[in-house]
Amino acid sequence: MESSPIDSSSNASSGLSSSTSSPPHSDRDHRQITLTVTQLEQLKVEEKVSEIYRILSGAPAHTQTLMLELWRDKHIEFLTRGLNQLGPTYRVLDANRPWLCYWIIHSMALLRESLDIEVENNAVDFLSRCKDINGGYGGGPGQLPHLATTYAAVNTLVTLGSNSALLSINREALREFLLRMKDFCGAFRMHHTGEMDVRACYTAISVASLLNILDFEITKGVGDYILRCQTYEGGIAGEPGSEAHGGYTFCGLATMILINEVHRLDLTSLIDWVAFRQGLEFGFQGRTNKLVDGCYSFWQGGSLFLIQRLLSIAENQIKSLPMSIEQEQLSMEGNVDSAAFTVPKPDGSQRQIHYFENKDAGKGSATGLDFIRTTNGGPLFHSIALQQYILLCSQVLEGGFKDKPGKVRDHYHSCYCLSGLSVSQYSFSKSADSPPPPNAVLGPYSNLLEPVHPLYNLVLDKYYKAHEFFSVMS
Amino acid sequence: MSSDEDEWVPFSRRPEWSDVKPVPQDDGPHPVVPIAYRADFRETMDYFRAVYLSGERSHRALNLTAEAISMNPGNYTVWYFRRLVLEAVDADLNDEMEYINCVASKNSKNYQIWHHKRWLAEKLGPEVAQKELEFTKRIFAIDAKNYHAWSHRQWVLDALGGWQNELDYCTELLEDDIFNNSAWNQRYFVITRSPLLGGLQSMRESEVSYAVEAILSNPENESPWRYLRGLYKGDPNLLICNNQISGVCLQVLKTKHNIIFPLSLLLELLCHGFQPSTEFVSAVEALRTSVPESSSTSSLANTICSVLEIVDPIRSNYWSWRRSHLPSQVC
Ligand SMILES: [Zn+2]
After folding, report:
1. Residue A355, Cβ neighbours under 10 Å: how many?
2. Rounded to a whole number, what is the distance in Å from the CA of B279 to chain A's nearest CA?
3. How far is ligand 1, taken at its centre, from the CA of residue A403, in Å?
4. Which of A266, B73, B143, B253 has the fewest CB atoms within 10 Å, i.e. the most exposed one?
């Protein structure tokens, strides 16, 4: 078990002061007179964060407990207000209203706050007005159907969880919509003639898996596209050639798991890249040498949470390290139906390597459930440190969460900070829904949120209900 | 803001729109996440819905989409409809490019705008390649890591060309800020994809030198360390044979500062079969002052993980996992 960073405050402060961009050592002064933009901005954030942690470590125990408390009532107040009324400046999110629904309603579910039946019905009614007659959901009533808002709408309806919410989804039309959004290369476009990227692939596959409409026609070619997006750094980019990025890494990894092709990724370099994104501020950054941001608590922390259940596949890849990944993929293509194949070891002997059977690709309807039943190997990130960043640097005492100190709160960061907080609280739990040991939760144990299903970012109980509901439909 | 509102003339008072009946948004009786729209926004969208639903592809419809976009550039339905109108009225796409550049300068982090630019540039063809590259340059002058702008630039190079000065441009950006990982990523893109440079194989040697130099001037900079590894992606046998790579690890380790990246790369080399000389062993041994004695008989890879568990506490779980799953030949 990890110790709390506040108990070992030397970690925090020494870590921060010996940081990558701290003022240069005197013996190097002659060449590091001017710092680059990256270094200056990093330094500013580190100073703000270390000031907050200094206050924490200097405070008496009862003040520390208070500082580390999750302000549930304030968050619920902020979220409820948004659900009921948003100001005129929100017009820039007028094509994202199902997202606003999901960010708010999922956050409330994480806080175990149930909605009035009336509000629930209003949400179902509103989302059916965003539904396109030919399948999919748009960003508001009458708007063109879009994959991201379709994902947000379906996840909201699953979170609401009533029969009328789940029945309001037209699965057949939605499947047709997904197929219309599929490019000939296999990847998905966000909307008719819209942009094609890893986000589009994830939102399409997540929705299809959840609604039990995932089949080979939908998954065909998706894995090839995601593989092309894994970069030399190890993370996944939005498009082939772009920079490894936390949001796309989560989307790409979750997609590959959902279509049963995760063994095709170079998991060792992916894990290494994500693990290195947690920084001296204790939160995650989205890309190498970028600033920490609370929303990556979920995108990166969630990726590592997924990886906790993939360790045996990663370990198999390590065992076969002397053979290059490229060679492995060539072997895979020639052996798509065999679960095991032999590779020569350097000493001339042979070793059997077991992989997931590739022929299962596309039969993914049970994957979401199977996945959370696999053993949890413990976190590869510092889950207590991450909780400290979320509670002290992202939490807004008036309610809601923000990117980092100095920024303002919003519903997006509230959703992904809370999701990241849940993921880190449950990272030591042996099974998906067993409560974590007390020392896995930073602050009072009442900070504990509901557990999520990390592939869909849905509260686990809501996922179970939907899975049961849709599994009987063909 | 307020002056905009003063000048704004409601559609209902514009004679050229008198034939159109606005279509209100169907929010239902009790919508959730309702937005308190200002009157100008509401009315503009009501008229937009009217022309969108009637499919009117006219110049006034084009102007209307511009008004709607100015109030919410994230409305992809408006952009989509604008493209239909542009095609139908046979608009001058160079004018459109000027317009979108103006919008993009103010909203450089919006998917719709960059998608629209890509659509336009594709229609206009290779003759706009240089202009598009110049435009992204102007964005990078403000935000050198703008993700959308980098994607656009890569698409332009791939689809329309303009590779001639790209490696120099990367060098220029890295001279400004050697920590700019987007510029490193672009560098990798250029050396692997440019039709003018002969691909990774022929660039490898000079790029190794470039990265090593960057490491030696800022060993705490993660970007060149990852770049160095990336140069041998899928080719581990060549990675472990390059003395410059093992050499830079050793050189930085000996300073005893910024040891996380060189230790991590050395571990990588060992896992792929690198045979360390005694110099490497003693350089690592010199770092393990605080590591418990019990591990004194362990392998070099094992020692590296143990050192990293201590000097890189935020990743101690990760290093301990790495330690317990080393490839059998380095255990
Ligand atoms: Zn963020």
Report:
1. 18
2. 24
3. 5
4. B143
Kindly determine whether residue B76 and residue A139, on different chains, have CB atoms separated by under 8 Å. Answer: yes
DSSP A84-122: H-B-GGGGGGTT-HHHHHHHHHHHHHHTTPPPPHHHHHH
For residue B76, give the chain A residue with the closest CA. Answer: A95
* HEC secondary structure over B209-234: HHHHHHHHHCCCCHHHHHHHHHCCCC
pLDDT value of residue B108 = 87
ipTM value for the complex: 0.96
> Is B109 annotated in the active site?
yes
Per-residue pLDDT reduced to its tens digit, A34-88: 999 999 999 999 999 999 999 999 999 999 999 999 999 999 999 999 999 999 9
Cβ of B326 within 8 Å of Cβ of A39? The answer is no
Q: Are A126 and B31 in contact (CB under 8 A)?
A: yes
Q: Which residues 97-126 in chain B show a CB within 8 A of chain A?
A: 111, 114-115, 118
Length of chain A measured in residues = 474
Give the pLDDT band of residue B4 (cuts 50, 70, 90). Answer: low
In chain B, whose CA is at the least distance from the CA of A199? B111
A406's torsion region: left (phi>0), alpha (psi -120 to 50) or beta?
Answer: left
Q: Residue A260 and residue A248: Cα distance in Å, rounded?
A: 18
Q: State the pTM of this model.
A: 0.91
Q: Measured in angstroms, how far is the CA atom of residue A147 from the centroid of ligand 1?
A: 21
**What's the rounded Cα separation, in Å, for the pair A3 and A11?**
10
Side-chain-side CA neighbours of A275 within 13 Å: the count stands at 26
The sign one gets for the Cα dihedral A206, A287, B257, A5 is negative
How far apart are alpha carbons A151 and A98 in whole angstroms? 9
For the residues of B289-330, what is the DSSP string, one character each?
Answer: TTS-GGGGGS-HHHHHHHHHHHH-GGGHHHHHHHHHT--GGG
pLDDT of residue A369: 86
Q: How far apart are the first and last CA of chain A?
A: 44
DSSP alpha helix (H) spans, A346-382: 367-373
Tokens of A431: 């099974």
Using CB atoms and an 8 Å cut-off, which of residues 254-313 of chain B contact chain A? 257-258, 264, 271-273, 313
Closest residue to B32, CB basis, from A123, A321, A377: A123
Coil vs helix vs strand at A40? helix
